[in-house]
Amino acid sequence: MSPILVASLSLLAMLGLIWAGMHVAIVLAVVSFAGVWLIRGDPTIAANLLAQASQDAIASHIFGVVPLFVLTGFLVAIADVGKDAFEVANQVLRRLRGGLGIATVASNAVFAAITGISIASAAVFTRVAVPEMLRFGYQPRFAVGVVAGSSVLGMLIPPSLLMILYGFLANQSVGDLFTAGILPGLVLALAYSTGIVLMATFWPRTVYAGGTPQPVTQEALMPLTTLAGKLLPSVLLIASVLGGLYAGFFTATEAGATGAAVALAIAVLRRKLNWKSLWSVLVETGHVTVSVSFLIICATIYTRMLAMSGMPQFLVEWMTQLGLGPTGFFIIYVSFCVLLGTIIDSSSILLIMLPLMLPIAEQLGLNLIWFGVVTVVAVEIGLLTPPFGLSVFVIKSTLQDQRITLGDIFRGTAPFTVMMVAVLLLLIFVPQLSLMLLKTPGG
């Protein structure tokens, strides 16, 4: 059996096992072990490869960025920073058409700039924003749709766990990826906000249950001092983490430590943290960190198996012979990412696609930071699309109102999925949106 055939069969086996319910990291390890065994004909070599990759994969202090940003996200969630951001955005934007929807997008963008976890955003704003929108006469389908759509900002606006994972897999600077994600994240948030205004203006019954919203009474408004107090924690966190990172005061790992320290101080000062909740936060942080680290280890094993098979070089030569060029390659690549997003999660897509596609991107001379931003947007579309749609399932499991079905949530996300695809195409054809904030946009 030729090495190329072994690699091809390993991809099919991987997708089948993941679809059958096996954890993606276990699948990567098992398939890679079997692949090396078949290629070299010796299980000892395969076992040695597993051992060596496990030792080399995360032997760097840069991996400290994972638990630090995860810890920051959990502390921010427990301190009700997302809830406060929503209340401020709600009051500021209340006079706009679809104001509560825009407030959800704006507060999700703020929350994303602190946590970097889409699933956390979906869970928090399902509890915070959906009941408010229903109370003021918004369509249930629109309410859950805007929460699901704007939750993807958590993986695009830095800090982002997906960008951290991409940085490790592609050997790129996590700090540069964070910087490159700022403008695309803001563009996506602006696209969502503009789309909501257009929907509320031209198709009001898709936004409001009765065609018009219920007015916000003057008594429900908060004084400016209260607004400032609610917004201050978000400003402090964003300024300390992203401001320090972009200004060059510290690395991505140090930015994570700063964010965790500030988030801990906020949670303590607000009296939202006790010994029991702190222990729970630390345990959850450990679970996520171990999960991500295990994924990276197994992805390293998989990458080495593919390199041994010669599959990346084969694909490079094949794509070169087709003469598609960078644009054609990008269209095929993002189409595969979006299709895979309908059946598997975002991290799994990165782990499967990048070892195969990065050599082609390098051969075509693509900027790998830009390639990373486009990749993250493409795989995040899968959070909104059936049948997998992880954000949709998180919203359904968090939702208090059982009258809203899974189908309602998927239909509610459809306009936001279309907007996201439009932004993805814009990022492909206008690379400078991702690169203009970098100090060396060409490299």
Automatic annotation (TrEMBL):
The keyword Transferase does not apply. GO terms for cellular component: plasma membrane. It is a multi-pass membrane protein. It comes from the Bacteria. Keywords: Cell inner membrane, Cell membrane, Membrane, Transmembrane, Transmembrane helix, Transport. This is TRAP transporter large permease protein. Part of the tripartite ATP-independent periplasmic (TRAP) transport system. The chain crosses the membrane at residues 12-38, 58-79, 99-130, 142-169, 181-203, 224-243, 249-269, 281-302, 368-395, 415-438. It comes from Comamonas flocculans.
